[in-house]
Amino acid sequence: MADAADLRGTTSARARRWLRRTAALLAAAPMLAGLTQIPAAPAAHAESKATGSRSVDVSITSLTPTAPQKSDTLTVSGTVTNDTKGTVSGARVGLRVGPTMSGRSAIDTTAHRTGYTEGLDGTEIDGKYAKKIGKLAAGTSRDFSLSIPVDQLHLGENGVYQLGVSLTGGTSDQPWPQVLGMERTFLPWQSGPSQKKSQLTYLWPLISATHVTARTDNDEDRTPIFRDDRLAKELAPGGRLQQMVALGKNLPITWVIDPDLLATVDAMTKKYEVQTPSGNGTRAGRGQTVAKQWLDALQKAVDGKQVVALPFADPDLASLAHRGKNVTGALSHLQGATDLASTTVETILGVRPRTDFAWPVDGAVDSSIVDVATSAGAHNVIARSDSLRETGGLPYTPTAARQIGGGNTAVVADARLSTAFTGDMSKAENSTLAIQQFLAQSQMINLQAPDKQRSIVVAPQRTPTTSQAQAMAAALEGLSGQWTQPLSLGQAAKAKPDPSATQRVPSTRSYPRSLRARELPTEAFDRIQETQKTLDNFEPILTAKYRVVTPFGNAIRREMSTSWRSEAQNATVFRHDVQTYLSGLAKKVRLVPKTDMTLSGRSATVPVTVQNNLVQGVELRLVLRSQQGNRLAVSDPQLVNVEGGHSQSVKFGTTANANGPVWVSAQLYTPDGQPYGGEMMFEVNVTEITSTVILVIAGGVLLLVLAGVRIYVQRKRAAARNGEDGGDGEDAEEPHGQDEDDSEAPETDRCDPAHALVPEQPSDPAPDTGSQSAGPSGSGEKVDH
């Protein structure tokens, strides 16, 4: 194996000696010239092969320390894989230090470059630090680990250095040593303290998808019903949210929290139910223990750190601005979500959060989004530099804060740093490169203008995976304050803006098409407002409003969540379920259908039954109207209070002025005068007193007269007998037990004037009954006078 000094370029010293011997042999034996198969310019062929070769895959899976000091030892580990069909001989892995990066764009270019290029990929460090592998058969892999004192890297001035790992070896076609595989990363080098450290704000989001339905059990505790139990896995040890809290507690970050997540986890600490996959039943949730552990850990983690609360359920601001504004009332939900955010966080975590920050999806802003975001009191909008782009030709990255008019501030997160960990970080190769690239970019910002201290904000993806969160944490730990110092988001928003930085908010037309295509549709906001209208009509009749208003109010806010962008079909189902369930509850308070009635006489009572199948009481106003008031008059409306699970019969007095059928309508109203439910119609047939009825009454009167005569005769006979028995001619005493007025009709019960006008009928039902059938009253219902 040749020295490192002999391995510069793509043609090694051994290859050159082999070419010289071959050339001499050909000169001495011309007869062999026609038989030779050796390229006329082997050196040129080797150069071409070297610059584009990816025959052996080299991956760097670990680099420590990520930002070394002069006294450290750098260790680079990884894997080499022979992707060719032949064996690589004399293989060895070496470390190469390239030139310093000239700027942030140079880092991007180097990260995407493939193959090996002489002059750009540097020279290999002393061979004694290389790893000899020998033969590497086709399709096989070998792990490697290279360790070298940092002072042997011969790093110069502060800067970002390209660091490469190459595999050198020969193939059967080209047996001389050459670079067959190359992988690059970056090595930030800071030999001394920075002149002025950049102030770095890193947002640490705790956001999840919507997990709670609008449904609750009918028990006193209003046990919530969850869509699924996936959140329990995220909270369990090793889960995404558990890792976010465990990692974040020791990092210099600003917590950004969706209060809906806190409310959901808090509900899980108690009894909760989970829908079965079919949706027809429920089972007991199993996340109580992990929910309690997670909330306890979070309370400790946020202690002493700034907490920013997003509006409840993290509403999609862009969808509201572009689609919701066309639906009357849709924007009003944002204020309620903002108000609820502070209460929720303070109640559960015991800290008072900042609620004056809005965070549109991916930091993409336009004028309409800013207007919506700031309408609910969020005077700081978290944007991103690939949306609010620099147009002034600044040679450095400016401070994040920008004044955008109206007393509002755009906090512009750096796009490169914010998207550094959006890929598949479960592969060690990807996460290692992402960490080094993040550190390199952050150092390069500082090196752009070392005499200007600037405030830099990083706003990563809303829901990092576990591996992404781990990579993010490793990058922040790697900074170690060498060229940055932590700053809270609130302080970053107050930083003095760079006067040359862009302050103009893009127009609505500039919003990315890819993001617009995933927005909530206008139909979603139509359905949301339909549900809100149903709730507004249902609420006034309830005696325990909190049992309905709170869960459905939260469900409506959840319908606008940003998380639905990745679950469009599930979002539609969720909105439909909320509306269907609420409508079903509202219909549990209704009028029991009536059939036609017959009134035999000029006045009578008409009973109407209100049924309440809710678990709480309701209060309504019931109005009975005659469609022909000149023929049938109906008494005034009545207030109705019906306990949960009961029915209440309400009696209306009627006075008939003419015979024949009259249509009557019954309508429930809320206490504030809004119609509740549909109008119920039934026919009342009024009949006069007929001759037959008069004959029956006359017969009854005759019987009463005859009975009186008989009683008189009996008394006279009794008196005569008493006289014959020796009476003195005076009237005898009444028989024992017979009152003087015994022949008179019994006194009628006293009643109030209303009842005197409209006598109660024997057939009227009891005023309050238990839960009864929802079927109509019996056919031919008749109320006799």
UniProtKB/TrEMBL annotation:
InterPro entries documented for this protein: DUF6049, Ig-like_fold, TAT_signal, TonB_box_CS
TM region(s), chain numbering: 693-713
Domain of life: Bacteria
Segments of skewed composition (Acidic residues): 725-746
Keyword Transmembrane helix appears in the UniProt entry: yes
Keywords: Membrane, Transmembrane, Transmembrane helix
Polar residues bias locations: 50-78, 500-511
Segments of this protein annotated with the region Disordered: 46-78, 489-513, 718-785
Protein's name according to its UniProt entry: DUF6049 family protein
Lineage, uppermost ranks: Bacteria, Bacillati, Actinomycetota, Actinomycetes, Kitasatosporales
